[in-house]
Write a structure and sequence with these properties.
It contains 4 helices and 7 strands; from the N terminus they run ββββααββαβα. It is of the alpha+beta class and 120 residues long. The strands form 2 sheets. The protein has a 4-stranded antiparallel beta sheet. A 3-stranded antiparallel beta sheet has the order 6-5-7, with helices on one face. A hairpin with a 2-residue loop joins strand 1 and strand 2.
């Protein structure tokens, strides 16, 4: 699978390119095939986009603390880590343009990670 031109693993078939939303930005992941799971997509997204900051923030942005969510209008449905992304994507048929696959936190941050200290 690749994300914005960065290869994470070689695939025998080219696969499909699907848009995902991570931290408010749309990112395209290519090489998705019928066996690609949500957890694998999260791994690629975080490898390439989710961990660009300091070490403390990297632990807070562990892909295991996040999941993919189907977002259609005002309805959100969390996807299992083992869900096949291409099957979910194709199920939307012609309505794909109205659907977003969004990365959302599924595990709460620890109190230490969520506290921000304001300095005067």
């Amino acid at each position: 699978m690749t994300s914005s031109g960065v290869t994470s693993q070689p695939l025998a078939t080219p696969g499909v390119e699907i848009p995902f939303w991570i931290f408010g930005q749309q990112k395209w992941v290519s090489g998705i095939n019928k066996n690609t799971t949500c957890q694998e997509v999260l791994g690629v997204l975080f490898k390439n986009f989710g961990n660009k900051s300091d070490d403390e923030n990297q632990s807070a942005n562990n892909p295991l603390n996040f999941s993919l969510v189907e977002k259609w209008r005002k309805i959100e449905r969390p996807l299992n880590a083992s869900s096949k992304v291409l099957k979910v994507w194709h199920a939307w048929g012609e309505d794909k343009s109205e659907v977003k696959l969004v990365v959302k936190r599924s595990q709460p941050q620890s109190p230490v990670e969520s506290v921000k200290i304001r300095r005067k």
